[in-house]
Amino acid sequence: MDLGTALRHSAGRNPHKPAVVCDGQVVSFEALDRSTDALARWLLQEGLETGDRVAIHWCNSVEVVNLYFACFKAGLIAVPLNNRLKGPEIAYILQHSSAKLCFSQPELAPLCEEVRAECPELQHLYTALPPLETTEPGNAALPIALPHISPDSVAAVLYTSGTTARPKGVMHTHVSLTGATELMISLGMDETHTLLAVTQMMHIAALACVLLPGISCGGTVVLLPLFDAAAALDLTERWRCSYILILPAMLRFLVEEQGRSPRNVSCVRLCLAGGDTVPVTLQERFRSLFGAPVRELYGMTETVPVTCIREDAPRAGSMGPALDLVDARVADLSGKVLTDGQIGELQVQSPANCIGYWGDPENTASTFSDGWLRTGDLVRRDADGFFWFEGRVKQIIVRGGSNISPQEVEEALYHHPAVLEAGVIGMPDPVYGEKVIAFVALRDGLTASEQELRELVRSRIADYKTPERILFLPALPKGLTGKVQRRALKDLVAAPTAPGGVATTGA
């Protein structure tokens, strides 16, 4: 099934039920189906042809939902632009994707205007959706017939964050996004759920783990335009949201806000957190305040979901087992499959796997090996089939020949009540090869000294994993998806003025 047909089926089952709620707007399934039909016809009337790219530069909104599904129905390729990108980053994606049209939120449009001259294939920049007659499907004003959509055709190109190189355009087809949808629904999602997306639909998580499965199963999708913990809790209470998808960095703020100003969140049945590891202490705090578990979901732009914590066997700290229909294995960098307990790269075969990178055969070839997607993440699998995250292939710290996972050290630091954020990196060391450096941001009004934190870490994990230095910052640098940027932390240590520019005591 193509993605547009999935919306039509839900509209046929529950035409008057709210499909999308955002910023005071409530759109029924029937209204969404009709408006996206009309917008799809309008796009084709503008001269676009099957496979043309349409850039979407908008925060979470009804407009974004309309644009996605209109592209799906018209056989066009949606190219979402992160609302936090700067001009040069936007220019690169518009150029690389050869986007023909760009829809940009009025507040964001000046960034696109600045670089428009650098994008010769960009024909039009729109700051609003056109007024459309939607009362009669196939009305005389827009007689263009919608095309037959091949499920194998590319539906969206989502660009990676590109923290260390140019971003790559991940190609997802109707088949792969439908595969992700079905995997999410298998976690227990159905039409009784009201789903809250606090992350942006420009990312694979909100698109494939909230919007598409929510629309396909007939649930109601509630969108938060921009993340704000208080607003997220207010929406949860107002719409009785039963399902929340959130990034770990955001989850921490949500928990802090609920602790300060409790809302009625008894409606929450499930919280899925992905994009980074979720400290066990944070999971326990969420359960105590919300009365529901945090189930850690693992995936990436290239494939999602892959693993998920099981409700009946939480195994706090693990990634959980691979989902049904997903094959996952652990291999060394030569491709040799490793036995349980050994640390290696996670490789995946899944109905949700992307088909490669737009205009980039070299990276496509290096990422796929005999049908297996190489994730670049280091894991180990235990005897029961549960996976445990050990770090990125390029982030693992090797000290004196021993591998150290940054996440393991961070987890130990989070056991101190004053620690709000922690980030751990490895830096060159003439004796041991690498040394462990930790960065910490403390909660307002609380203190901790470097010695105190080092002693805490030493009490929880092996001595050789204890940071040689702990540096304190007001907040840790984060990327577009909320992950701590370890490269930025390395730059802070490497800077000539690092000791003077970074506080080394939290007292």
Low-confidence stretches: 135-140, 499-507
Span from first to last CA? Answer: 59 Å
The CATH level-2 architecture of the domain at 397-501 is identified as: 2-Layer Sandwich
Biggest sheet: strand arrangement: 2-1-10-9-11-12-13-14
CATH structural fold name of the domain at 397-501: GMP Synthetase, Chain A, domain 3
The proportion of residues forming helix, as a percent range, comes to: 25-40%
Radius of gyration, CA atoms, in whole angstroms: 23 Å
* The CATH top-level class label of the domain at 397-501: Alpha Beta
CATH homologous superfamily title of the domain at 397-501: ANL, C-terminal domain
Q: Got a strand count?
A: 25
Major sheet characteristics = 8 strands, mixed
Strand content: 25-35%
User: Average pLDDT across residues?
Assistant: 90
By helix and strand content, what is the structural category?
alpha/beta
Q: How does the overall form come out from the CA principal axes?
A: globular
Structural summary, described in words:
This protein is of the alpha/beta class and 507 residues long. Among the domains are: 325-392, Luciferase, Domain 3 (Luciferase, domain 3), CATH 2.30.38.10; 397-501, GMP Synthetase, Chain A, domain 3 (2-Layer Sandwich). It contains 15 helices and 25 strands. The chain has helices at residues 3-13, 29-45, 62-74, 87-97, 109-115, 174-185, 204-217, 229-239, 248-260, 280-290, 361-367, 406-413, 450-460, 486-494, 498-501, and strands spanning 18-22, 25-28, 53-57, 77-80, 101-104, 124-126, 154-159, 169-173, 194-197, 220-223, 243-246, 270-274, 294-300, 303-308, 327-331, 344-349, 356-357, 368-369, 372-381, 387-392, 397-399, 402-404, 419-429, 433-442, 469-472. An eight-stranded mixed sheet has the order 2-1-10-9-11-12-13-14, sandwiched between helices. Strands 15, 16, 18, 19 and 20 form a five-stranded antiparallel sheet that branches. Helix 4 packs across helix 5 (109-115). The longest helix has 17 residues, at 29-45. The radius of gyration is 23 Å and the shape is globular. The model is unreliable at 135-140 and 499-507 (pLDDT under 50).
